Amino acid sequence: MNAVVYGVGTSDFGKQRETTASDLAWTALSEVFDDAGVAAVDAIYVGSVFGEMGVAQRALHPFGLHDVPVIRVENACASGTTAFHEANAAITVGRYERVLVLGLEHMSRRVAGALPPEPRDPHGRAGLVLPALYAMAATRYMHDYGVTREQLAAVSVKNHAHALDNRRAQYGMRLTIGEVLASRPIADPLTLLQCSPVSDGAAAAILGPPRGGPRDVRVVACAMGSGGIWDHRSASVWGFQIVRDVARRAYELAGVEPDDIDLVECHDAFTIGEIVTCEALGLADQGKGAWLAASGETTLGGRVVVNPSGGLLSRGHPLGATGVAQVAEVVTQLRHEAGPRQVDDAEIGLVETMGGGVTGIDGNGCVVAVLRR
Amino acid sequence: MNAVVYGVGTSDFGKQRETTASDLAWTALSEVFDDAGVAAVDAIYVGSVFGEMGVAQRALHPFGLHDVPVIRVENACASGTTAFHEANAAITVGRYERVLVLGLEHMSRRVAGALPPEPRDPHGRAGLVLPALYAMAATRYMHDYGVTREQLAAVSVKNHAHALDNRRAQYGMRLTIGEVLASRPIADPLTLLQCSPVSDGAAAAILGPPRGGPRDVRVVACAMGSGGIWDHRSASVWGFQIVRDVARRAYELAGVEPDDIDLVECHDAFTIGEIVTCEALGLADQGKGAWLAASGETTLGGRVVVNPSGGLLSRGHPLGATGVAQVAEVVTQLRHEAGPRQVDDAEIGLVETMGGGVTGIDGNGCVVAVLRR
Predict the structure, then answer these.
(1) Under the phi-then-psi rule, with left for phi > 0, alpha for psi from -120 to 50, and beta for the rest, what region is B52?
(2) In this predicted complex, what is the ipTM?
(3) Which residues of B touch A225 (CB under 8 A)?
(4) Residue A359 has pLDDT above 70, yes or no
C-alpha cells in the first residue's frame, strides 16, 4: 500500500533572525493541519540539523502535540527527506494511521557563509568545505565536457526567476547570466549567486493511507541510501553515483521512467549540483546536464521543470526544512494549485535530496521520492 | 513477531578527551558485529545528541558501513532508546532483516557541569536547568513523604558499588552515605555524587527476527511516548506520569507485571530520578520508592536489581549512548554473562529512559522496553 500526502504547509523562507525555530514551526503546523483536514496524528518525525537538544519537542509542545512518539532525525541536508522516508515507511507498513513530518532549521544566528567544518575533520582542515568541493567538481566537469561558465550560471538565472512566483521564497530575482558571473567569487568557478544561502524556515506534511481525498497525492516510491561522493578513485568524481543508485531504485518502485517525470525538486545547493544531479536522475546523458537549464528545457514551460519553487539556490536552504519544502512544492504542483508557477498538466513529480557531513567526503545520505497525482 | 537482539557492544565510558565519537563507535561496532555473528546490516539507527551534522555517517564510514540507510535520531537523553525503538519497529513489521543500533556521544569537549540552556529558553534563563528541577522535585517529595537525605544518598551508594564490577563504568566506588552527602552541593538537596557525570561513550546492538540463537534475547515490548513532566498543575509534579503511562503500555505488550521483572536499567540521572522512576514503573507504591535502595531491595542480590551496571550515576551518561548501553546491560544479564555483577536467575529485564529539552519542561520523550531470555 502506498502512503498518501494529505496536506502540506510551510513558513516563509529567509533570514529571520528575530524568530525561533518554534515560531517558524508554528506557521508550518498551522497550515498543514488545515490543509490535511485532520485533527491529530499518531507519530511525528522531525528533520533538523542544528536545532538544540529537544528542539523537536520544544517546537511541537506549544502546538499541543505532546502525547505521541516524536522522533527527530538528522541526515545533514537530507534530514527533511529522511524524516519523510521514515514517515512514509511507517504508513506503508501500517504502524500508524496519521504521521506528521516537520522540517525546521534556524540557521541565521548560527552560521555565516559556508557551513563550518568540525575541528577534527581532516578534510575541513585542508580547506575542503562544501563550496570548495563543488567548485573542484565544477572545474573538472567543465574541462571534461566542454561546459562553460555561462551554462553553470544559467541554472542560477532559471531558479531565481522561478522563485519570483513563490511568495515563500528567499530570493526571487530577475537576473542575467552576466550578473550571476559578476557576483562575488566564492570558490572559482562558483560565484555568490551560484551558492544556496543561509536560511531559516520550516515545512510540514501529513501522511496516511489512501482515503479518497480529491487533493491527496500518492507517494509511489521513496528510496534511501548512503555512500560517499567525491570519490577520488572514480573516473567521474562529480558523478554522484549515490543519487544514480537511489534514483534507479525509486524509478523501479514507482514503475516509471525518467521521461515520465513532469517536475523535479532537487538538491541545487550549488549550480553544478543541479547539473550533475539531473544527469544522475536520468534527465540528461552524462556530460549533457549543463545544456538543460541553458536551453530552457528545465524552465517553467519546458520539457521537465526543475526546481519550480526556486530550489535551494533561491527558495533558500534551511537544512532540515529543505526536503519537506521540496515535498510541499511537488504536492502543490501535482494538485495544480501552484498558481503562476504551475507546471502544465503535472502528473508525476520527483523529490531528491542529498546530505553529507560538512565536507561531504566521508558519508552521505540520499533520498529520492516519486509522487503521483 | 518480536525482534531479537543478536548482539551488543560498548566502548569504555568516561571522560576521554583525546578520543572522538568515531573512535568510541569503532570499539562498540567491533564488539557488536563479533557478538552478533553477522557480517552486514540492512539499516542503521544512530542515537546522538551533540554530534555535529553528519556525525552518524562519519562514525560508520570508516567501518565500511556506508551503503544502507543511516538514520540519526535525537530525543535528548532518550536518543539511544529512541533509535532502539525505531530499529525494533523496523524488524517487527518486516522492513529489514538486520538492523544496527548505535548510540554515541562525545561530551567532555562540549559540556562542563550542567547541560547549558539554550539562549532563548525562558525556563533556562530563570535558572531552571535540570539539576535545579530535580532538586525542587526532591525537596517536595521529601516533604510530602517524610523521606530523608540519607535515603536519597542510598541510591548513589548502591549504584557506585554496582559499577565497581563493571569494567566499562566511569565511576565504580565504595562510598558511604556520609561521603555522598558531604560531596559538593549542586542544587540542594542534591550533592555532586547524586548527579550523573559528563561522559564520552558509545554502545551498539544488532536486532533481527528470531533465528534460534542460544544467546539471543527477545524484545517482548518497546513502547514510546512524549509529554511534559514537571507539570505545576499536577498534585505530584515529581510523579513522572509519562513514565507511568509508557510503562503500562510496555507491560501490557509484554504480558508481564512489575513483579515479574528481575532487573531494571533506568534513568537515574539524579538520585531522586531513580526513586520516582521506580514508582512509575510499579516497583514501589507512590511515596515508597525511597525505601527501595535504602533497604537493599534493589541492590545486587535483592528482590529486583536496579541499575546493576552502575546506572547513569556511575556507569556514566553519554546522552545518545545511554539507552543503548542500558539495552547492552540487560542483554548481558539475561544471557547470564554479567560475571561478578550477574543478577541471579535473570529472566526478564526492563530498560527505561526519559529525555527532554535542557529544562525538561516543554516536552519529553520516554521509552520503556521489556526484554526476555
Answers:
(1) beta
(2) 0.91
(3) 67-69
(4) no
